[in-house]
Design a protein that fits this description.
438 residues; alpha+beta; 4 domains; five-stranded mixed sheet; ATP binding; kinase; ATP-binding
């Protein structure tokens, strides 16, 4: 409220009270004089009235201010308890109006913020409750703090899981799920649920909440997606196999027909050449099938601690490359399998047309994984080739088997890692093999 709209300011009221108090003091002095000198009787009576009335006025004014302060204190206490519905009104007009208005505005802001926060919490809870990923939040003593709809359906027939002990809940789950939880790391697992085989991805994250360690388990159903990917992969494999078989069977069929015609005519001189060609194509098919078998029957990796310097020195005996800095700490992997994977990658790098000093191999440890990168300065790969390069038997080379990168991929994934392909700026390709440190 503007200053000119206030009837009386607090300063004016205090000045009036001081003036009344001064009159009261003068009155008391006059009374003393009157008693002593018996003079100014009328003035003394007036001053006595002032001395009586002034404290009453001051008491009434102070009572109103104390009532306002109590109202403000009670309203602030309500704010502290989370109740922002209170506001303060007063009929006086002075400087305290600014304080009252600021207090009421604070209440309005807090009410709006609380409403907005409630809407966001409601939206978040709706999203989390209805996500198809099963979520379980476990506190440090093993009690389940939170479980969404998917978790209740997966583990407890749709019933509430909050308050239950996580180990007890897991006792009634299928063995593959318990084994996945026992490994303590992210992984895929499959088990029969609702009468059909289901595949899930388990992820686990630890964090502090209200000063205590909590664990969030996430179970994502991947069956439909994996089925789609499996069908797509099989289609790619069938296309590659069909292409390879046609490349061999078509000439064999043609040569067999030509041989039969030559035999009918009695022209035996050209038969030897025809049989040699048929034999060469049959050997190619035999090698193709043998390569398929090697990919399909990759043995389980035998992990051991491997020092990088001697390992890379042995690798350089197969294909030369420029070596960058290497980690001082050893890594755990199957040296024979990883060596074979890197030989395949280095072979492709050399066959890309790069000079030997343009092929580089770097090893970097990033957190709990180690990344081995092989880079060249060849022509790189088109988008179509990048999309199919890791499919078994896919090759753009006339005499290529299409198994080198596919086998490297199988080896990386058997170690719990992955392989990646990316074109380089300025030309060339980088193949990265990422392996867990432990």
């Amino acid at each position: 409220m503007d200053a000119h709209k206030r009837h009386f300011s607090m300063a004016g009221k205090l000045a009036l009270l001081l003036f009344a108090a001064m009159l009261a003091a003068v009155g008391l002095c006059a009374l003393l004089i009157d008693w002593l000198g018996n003079a100014l009787l009328g003035a003394s009576l007036t001053l006595v009235v002032c001395a009586i009335v002034a404290p009453l006025i001051a008491q009434r004014y102070l009572a109103r201010q104390l009532s306002l302060f109590r109202a403000l204190s009670g309203s602030v206490a309500s704010f502290r308890d989370g109740d922002f519905s209170f506001s303060v009104t007063r009929r006086s007009h002075d400087e305290l109006d600014d304080l009252v208005e600021a207090h009421n505005e604070l209440g309005r802001v807090l009410r709006d913020e609380r409403q907005s926060l409630f809407q966001r919490e409601l939206l978040l809870d709706t999203v989390v409750q209805n996500t198809p990923t099963a979520l379980l939040l476990i506190e440090s003593r093993g009690a389940i703090v939170y479980g969404n709809v998917a978790a209740r359906q997966l583990f407890h027939d749709g019933r509430k899981v909050e308050g239950l002990k996580f180990p007890q809940l897991m006792e009634n789950t299928p063995a593959p799920l318990r084994e996945a939880l026992g490994e303590g790391r992210d992984r895929l697992f499959s088990f029969e649920h609702a009468g059909q085989e289901e595949t899930y991805h388990l992820a686990r994250r630890d964090f502090h909440l209200n000063g205590r360690v909590h664990t969030l388990f996430m179970f994502k159903r991947l069956t439909a997606e994996l089925n789609r990917q499996e069908v797509a992969t099989w289609k790619k494999v069938i296309r590659v196999i069909s292409h390879e078989l046609n490349n061999s069977l078509a000439p064999i069929t043609s040569l067999a027909h030509s041989g039969a015609e030559l035999l009918r005519r009695g022209d035996h001189e050209k038969l030897g050449r025809i049989f040699e060609t048929i034999e060469e194509r049959a050997r190619h098919l035999h090698g193709f099938l043998r390569g398929y078998s090697s990919v399909a029957k990759l043995p389980v990796p035998e992990l051991e601690s491997v020092e990088w310097a001697p390992f890379l020195s042995r690798l350089q005996q197969h294909y030369g490359f420029e070596r960058g800095p290497i980690p001082s700490e050893p890594a755990r992997f199957d040296p024979a399998q990883v060596e074979q994977a890197l030989i395949n990658v280095l072979k492709n790098a050399h066959e890309s047309g790069s000079k030997e000093d343009e092929v580089t191999l770097t090893v970097r440890q990033i957190g709990r994984v180690v990344r081995v990168e092989v880079s060249d300065r060849g022509p790189g790969m088109s988008d179509a080739v990048l999309a199919n390069a890791l499919v078994p038997f896919y090759s753009t080379k006339r005499s290529g088997s299409g198994l080198g990168l596919a086998l490297a991929r199988e080896i990386c994934e058997a170690h719990g890692g992955r392989i990646g392909l990316a074109n380089r700026d300025g030309g060339g390709l980088t193949v990265s093999l990422t392996l867990p440190v432990e």
